[in-house]
């Protein structure tokens, strides 16, 4: 435990104090696909985002549909903040300070966020808060694999809501549960043609999971580090604004990069507000990598290398050359299941099995997304992890 895992440890101590936690692991799952049963909570609906519209109008249709769910999750976040700072001062600060911040965000993001606030009726500062706290509380599993025909497959579990209020009675995370109705698939179009597709939370304008059909697939995972997100975000608020928000970079790459190599260079070289892992898949043999980022630069790039027998790369929230935190090892079970599957049997179907195995599937898992670049396919599923199940 050389580096700082304070966040995970804090969450652990909090939850452990509310209940006893056995290691809820299980044998690699099989025959989970098509998704069904208690780990499948529901399908995800599609919306179009028209990039030819002015930024303030792009999200109107989606937010009109999802308004009640968005208001409900933001209320839950406010309740948590008020429980934490009972004077109500924290939310007061959010309502006063964060609206000013929206004009410091690069466009089109600032204008899109203003549009979302206008349509939803949620105060602007609270929509800004909703758009920045993902940068801090996300733990995930992502994998890019190459099958024996040279197809690149990309899967991810998005695990969100770490220490966002543990519901002792339900044994669930309050915010993770409230986010599930906000999960949507988005088709971003220009000139009536798809530019990229994404799985996202309604109300959030950055990207964590997406595909540029036939070209590349991309997911982002949080990297906990001493030089973490808080410092960069604080610097941003204080006026030092030369780094890029991670999920805005992901979106900008999906929107603008036109090849695996171009995407890789942008993800490796753009200065960021916080460390991150980018998991990128291309459209040709050997094109799959994990980019481990510090705020300034790429520290390491691990690529698929068939000659070395490395037919997949897999990332959770730890540097691949280090051991994961022993209390939060999703990497070993996920790799064990990938290894058992074998390259000749990997497909979106068997990848879903891997991503359905506890603790790769856990109480934070809100959705699973599967992408196949050669078919331009993105599909996603809302998940549940019935007891007994690891809180993370
Ligand atoms: C807890 O579970 C009960 C019954 O299953 C449900 O009605 C309630 O909405 C749940 N609460 C949360 C916060 O998920
Ligand atoms: C957009 O494309 C769809 C098919 O993808 C077509 O049905 C529709 O008419 C097009 N709309 C416009 C305005 O061109
Ligand atoms: C793969 O991506 C490149 C752009 O990097 C593109 O030119 C090529 O057509 C794509 N190949 C396939 C099979 O779609
Ligand atoms: C999976 O296979 C790789 C490559 O052979 C190996 O390095 C790794 O230790 C294996 N991991 C597990 C958990 O079986
Ligand atoms: C791989 O797939 C074949 C059929 O294509 C099946 O017979 C075999 O049991 C599978 N292997 C594993 C490890 O799942």
From TrEMBL:
Its recorded name reads Acid ceramidase
- Endpoints of the signal sequence: 1-18
What would be the name of the gene that encodes this protein? asah1b
* Family assignment from sequence similarity: Belongs to the acid ceramidase family.
Its keywords, alphabetically, are: Disulfide bond, Glycoprotein, Hydrolase, Lipid metabolism, Lysosome, Secreted, Signal, Sphingolipid metabolism
Its pathway is: Sphingolipid metabolism; Lipid metabolism; sphingolipid metabolism
Subcellular location field? Lysosome; Secreted
| A molecular function (GO) term | N-acylsphingosine amidohydrolase activity
The answer to whether UniProt assigns keyword DNA-binding to this entry is: no
The chain positions of domain Acid ceramidase N-terminal read 42-104
Domain Choloylglycine hydrolase/NAAA C-terminal: from-to ranges: 140-377
The record's active-site residues are 140 (nucleophile)
Q: Which PANTHER family match?
A: ACID AMIDASE, ACID CERAMIDASE
What are the EC numbers? Answer: 3.5.1.23
Q: What species was this sequence derived from?
A: Cottoperca gobio (Frogmouth)
Biological process (GO) annotations held by this record are: fatty acid metabolic process; sphingolipid metabolic process
Quote the Pfam families the UniProt record gives.
CBAH, NAAA-beta
């Amino acid at each position: 435990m050389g580096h700082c895992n304070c966040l995970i440890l804090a969450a652990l101590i909090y939850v452990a104090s509310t209940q006893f936690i056995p290691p809820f692991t299980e044998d690699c799952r099989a025959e989970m696909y098509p998704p069904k049963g208690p780990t499948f909570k529901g399908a995800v609906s599609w919306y179009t985002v028209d990039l030819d519209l002015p930024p303030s109008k792009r999200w109107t249709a989606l937010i009109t549909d999802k308004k009640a769910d968005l208001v409900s999750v933001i209320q839950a976040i406010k309740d948590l903040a008020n429980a934490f700072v009972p004077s109500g001062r924290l939310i007061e600060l959010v309502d006063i300070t964060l609206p000013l911040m929206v004009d410091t965000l690069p466009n089109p993001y600032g204008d899109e966020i203003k549009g979302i606030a206008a349509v939803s009726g949620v105060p602007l500062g609270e929509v800004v808060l909703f758009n920045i706290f993902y940068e801090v509380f996300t733990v995930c599993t992502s994998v890019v694999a190459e099958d024996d025909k040279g197809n690149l497959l990309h899967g991810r579990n998005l695990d969100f809501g770490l220490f966002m209020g543990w519901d002792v009675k339900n044994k669930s995370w309050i915010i993770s549960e409230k986010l599930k109705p906000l999960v949507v698939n988005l088709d971003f179009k220009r000139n009536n043609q798809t530019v990229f597709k994404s799985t996202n939370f309604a109300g959030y304008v950055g990207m964590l999971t997406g595909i540029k059909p036939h070209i590349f697939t991309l997911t982002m995972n949080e990297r906990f580090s001493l030089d973490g997100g808080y410092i960069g975000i604080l610097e941003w608020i204080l006026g030092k604004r030369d780094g890029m928000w991670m999920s805005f970079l992901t979106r900008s790459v999906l929107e603008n990069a036109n090849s695996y190599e171009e995407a890789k260079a942008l993800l490796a070289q753009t200065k960021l507000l916080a460390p991150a892992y980018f998991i990128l898949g291309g459209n040709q043999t050997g094109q799959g990598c994990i980019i481990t980022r510090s705020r300034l630069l790429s520290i390491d790039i691990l690529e698929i290398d068939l000659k070395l027998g490395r037919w997949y790369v897999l990332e959770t929230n730890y540097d691949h050359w280090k051991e994961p935190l022993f209390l939060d090892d999703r990497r070993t079970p996920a790799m064990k299941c990938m290894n058992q599957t074998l390259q000749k049997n990997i497909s979106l179907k068997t990848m879903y099995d891997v991503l359905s195995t506890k603790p790769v599937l856990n109480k934070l898992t809100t959705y699973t997304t599967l992408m196949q670049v050669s078919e331009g396919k993105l599909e996603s599923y809302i998940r549940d992890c019935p007891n007994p199940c690891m809180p993370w």
